[in-house]
Amino acid sequence: MVTFADVSETKKAEQEIETARSYSAGIVDTVSQPLVVLDGDLRVISASRSFYRVFSVKPEETVGRELGAIDDRHLDVPALHGFLDQLRAGVAEIENYEIKVELPAIGWRSLLMNAREIRGKPQAERQILVAIEDVSERYRAAAALDAARQQAERANIAKSRFLAAASHDLRQPLQTISLLQGILAKKLNDESALRLVAKLDETLGAMSGMLNTLLDINQLEAGIVEPEPEDFPINDLLDQLKTEFAYHTGSSGLDWRVVPCGLTVKSDPRLLEQMFRNLL
Fold first, then answer.
1. What is the mean pLDDT of each run of 10 residues along the chain (280 residues)?
2. Measured between alpha carbons, how far is residue 11 from residues 7, 8, 25 in Å?
3. Which residue among 50, 123, 245, 256 is least packed, with the fewest CB closer than 10 Å?
């Protein structure tokens, strides 16, 4: 007796399975993260190319062994034992379990272990996919950024203290100069000398304004300055700046022209003056 069985569908299904297996294997091999599949006894069934590259091992040195036993037991650390103990206890999913190991080629590394049980397998054929992410550089970058931030904060505090101290210490001699200027103005009768003294008074006013600006900068950085906008003629501010900078531009041989304006603006007069003076 001769029997015939049509196995076309079976062959087709086997071919489709093999195609799917090759497709998934291709995806796994292109992933930069080291991937490894463990069986129910937590021994390696397979691993990706990146796994072999990162840990400098070969398939024949890996398959059939526990993770801690590969690469001359460089992964055999207490943290890995805790990770494997959770899997051994039946935990189906573990996220971002951190371990630190020293690898011969690249030194100390911080690794995040992620595990997930592969669905659709009978309990006797339990398989677990483990993904390993090296976050060492991320941690180093975060530490460097934090150190730079702390250094910048220290520098900012030192700068604020310096500005506060400098503006405070300079007020006393400035007041003395102002007092002497007033005494000198009362003793002079020559018109040209009085004009120079008046220029000195304007300069003293500008210096006082600059010291106030230093204090305001600290207050602005501390968030304790609130603008107080009001309506005022902009020409008053322009005239003040015109007089203040006329001496500086004249002594430097520069042309200095301020166009008068009859408009009214709404702003904080003091802060706007500081902005204009800084720009000039």
1. 83 69 59 83 86 83 84 78 88 88 78 84 74 85 88 81 71 77 80 79 75 68 76 92 81 89 93 84
2. 6, 5, 21
3. 123
Q: What residues pair up with 109 in beta bridges, in sequence order? A: 101
Residue pointed to by tokens 């091999």 = 29
In terms of domains, do 25 and 123 share one? Answer: yes
Select from 144, 150, 71 the least CA-distant residue to 111: 71
CB atoms within 10 A of CB 45: 14
Domain that holds residue 64: 20-134
Closest CA to 269 of 246, 224, 238, 245: 238
Q: What is the pLDDT of residue 120?
A: 62
The answer to whether residues 221 and 233 belong to one domain is: no
3-state SS, one letter per residue, for 107-122: EEEEEEEEEEECCCCC
Strands 35-39 and 44-47: antiparallel
State the pLDDT at residue 24. Answer: 56
Residue 267 falls in which region: left (phi positive, over 0), alpha (psi -120 to 50) or beta? beta
pLDDT the model gives residue 258: 93
Exposure class string for 168-195: b at 16+ Cβ within 10 A, else e: eeeeeebeeebeeeeeeeeeeeeeeeee
- Its pTM stands at 0.49
Quick check: is 78 in a domain? yes
Together in a domain, 215 and 248: no
Q: Do the domain assignments include residue 8? A: no
Please indicate, yes or no, whether residues 24 and 58 belong to a single structural domain of this protein: yes
